[in-house]
Design a protein that fits this description.
By secondary structure, this protein is mainly beta. It contains one helix and 18 strands. The protein folds into two domains: 102 residues, Immunoglobulin-like; 103 residues, Sandwich (Immunoglobulin-like). The strands form four sheets. The protein has a six-stranded mixed sheet with strand order 12-11-18-17-14-15, with no helix packed on it. Strands 2-9-8-4-6 form a five-stranded mixed sheet, with no helix packed on it. It has a four-stranded antiparallel sheet with strand order 1-3-7-5, with no helix packed on it. A hairpin with a 4-residue loop joins β17 and β18. The longest helix is centred in the first third of the chain and has 11 residues.
């Protein structure tokens, strides 16, 4: 009986892919900068999941996996980097993840961004419009970001994603009243081994009962020895 159960388990054991979100929206963003989002790929099955390939359809977007074999119950990070030079207005990019999941071998991920020269299409002003963190071998200790609600409506605002190159931001979702400002102190991490990760962004979401607005602020560094 035990042998039969063991054989049955081997027959039916299979990996099962699950992605943290099928799409991501950077919202309104400055054109000509870099934007990064990290998805997570989970293995919800009962045998290892192998990632056989990742494909994008534009040289402006690249991806990076933390690992290609994911044990049962484990996960891997999947980074999507979008270089927006030469793009304007709303853009949608895709990535396809091919795995050995017998029921879902090809997963599609969508990434949306709205690229303009400023943030005037949102209810907010952003100062500075991009975050210059200094030189990679002499980063600033802190950079201040000021968001002002220029509308006549109160918005609840939250952080959607903080890039890995910044220390955790001391900020909880809260109401930004009409005409009020929000000041955030952002601190670059000094222990980032791969300085290319500084090609990134920080994403906010503001909402009322009837409206949701997203926007992303790009990070900028001067790379040492370049």
């Amino acid at each position: 009986m035990n042998a039969l159960f063991f054989i049955s388990a081997l027959i039916f054991a299979a990996p099962k892919i699950e992605i943290s979100e099928p799409s991501f929206d950077f919202g309104y963003s400055l054109s000509s900068y870099s934007y990064r989002h990290t998805f997570r790929i989970y293995n919800k099955g009962d045998s290892p999941l192998r990632i056989l390939g990742v494909r994008t359809f534009c040289g402006c977007s690249t991806t990076e996996l933390s690992k290609r074999a994911i044990e049962s119950g484990d996960s891997a990070s999947f980074e999507f980097l979008y270089e927006t030079q030469g793009f304007f207005a709303e853009c949608v990019k895709w990535a396809y993840v091919r795995t050995d999941d017998p029921e879902d071998s090809l997963s599609k991920i969508n990434v949306t961004i709205r690229l303009y020269e400023d943030y005037k299409r949102t209810p907010f002003s952003v100062e500075p419009e991009f975050l210059f963190l200094g030189k990679t071998d002499s980063l600033k200790s802190s950079v201040n970001l000021v968001l002002k609600n220029n509308s006549k409506t109160d918005y609840t605002i939250k952080l959607v994603e903080t890039p890995v190159v910044l220390e955790e931001v001391d900020f909880q979702p809260g109401v930004l009243e009409a005409g009020q400002t929000l000041n955030l102190a952002l601190r670059p991490r000094t222990d980032v081994a791969d300085v290319s990760k500084f090609k990134s962004s920080i994403t906010f979401e503001a909402y009322t009962q009837t409206e949701t607005v997203r926007f992303s602020v790009p990070l900028l560094v001067e790379f040492a020895n370049r």
